Amino acid sequence: NAPLGHCGIVLRWASLQVNILFYVHAGLATQHLIQTGNTSPRRQRAQAMTEIANPHWEHFPHEADMGVRGIGASREQAFEQAALALTAVIADLDKVAAREPVEIRCEAPDDELLFVDWLNSLVYEMATRHMLFSHYVVHIDGTRLTATAWGEPLDIARHQPAVEVKGATYTGLHVAKAADGHWLAECIVDV
């Protein structure tokens, strides 16, 4: 079964870091431990790529900000999963209904700049429309991205937003196809 979503917890003991990721498979939660210790970001990305072959998203800590990572079988899936991670920084995805579609278009000279433009377009749409999104369909043709984001108006009482994302940054920016064929898209978002 493909994961329907997941959340992560990072625990630190001295120089040892353990990431605990909970994946939900058709309503059944399973737990995966990734012992990262003092491994490099490249090694952590490699672990993320091999941990589960199905599309998924992750958060990773970065000083006062948050990293968002999407992993998928295609560049489009990786962008969709990273968008879910972006929304999950703000609120619980399970509380956001996919009711209203919003069309989004971006263009940039390469995949990494396109990824940042994509996330920043979502931040702009969330801020100006006062909405949260919980479902994304992305199409990429060369340097052009067209997408539909489904969501609903922000309801402070129900969604209980934790933070406001100010924007996607170039820090930690990485979009690439791994040796196993899966795509990874990640960067730090300013909160």
List descriptors.
single chain; 191 residues; alpha+beta; five-stranded antiparallel beta sheet; three-stranded antiparallel beta sheet; 11 strands; globular; disordered N terminus
In short:
This protein has helices spanning 41-51, 75-90, 111-129, 156-159; strands at 3-13, 16-25, 28-35, 56-62, 65-72, 100-107, 131-141, 144-153, 167-168, 174-177, 183-190. By secondary structure, it is an alpha+beta fold. α2 (75-90) packs parallel to α3.
Explain this structure.
This protein is α+β, with helices and mostly antiparallel strands. About 25% of the residues lie in helices and about 45% in strands. Strands 4, 5, 9, 10 and 11 form a five-stranded antiparallel beta sheet that branches. α2 runs parallel beside α3. It is globular and about 45 Å long. The model is unreliable at about 1-40 (pLDDT under 50).
Please specify the SSE layout and strand pairing.
Layout: E1 3-13, E2 16-25, E3 28-35, H1 41-51, E4 56-62, E5 65-72, H2 75-90, E6 100-107, H3 111-129, E7 131-141, E8 144-153, H4 156-159, E9 167-168, E10 174-177, E11 183-190
Antiparallel strand pairs: 1-2, 2-3, 4-5, 5-11, 6-8, 7-8, 9-11, 10-11
Helix pairs in contact: 2-3
For the sheet with most strands, the description reads: 5 strands, antiparallel
Provide the β-strand percentage band: over 45%
Question: From N to C, what is the helix and strand string?
Answer: EEEHEEHEHEEHEEE
Helix content: 25-40%
- Chain oligomer state: single chain
Number of helices: 4
Q: Taking all residues together, what is the mean pLDDT?
A: 81
**Which class do the helix and strand fractions yield?**
alpha+beta
C-alpha-based Rg, rounded: 16 Å
Number of strands: 11
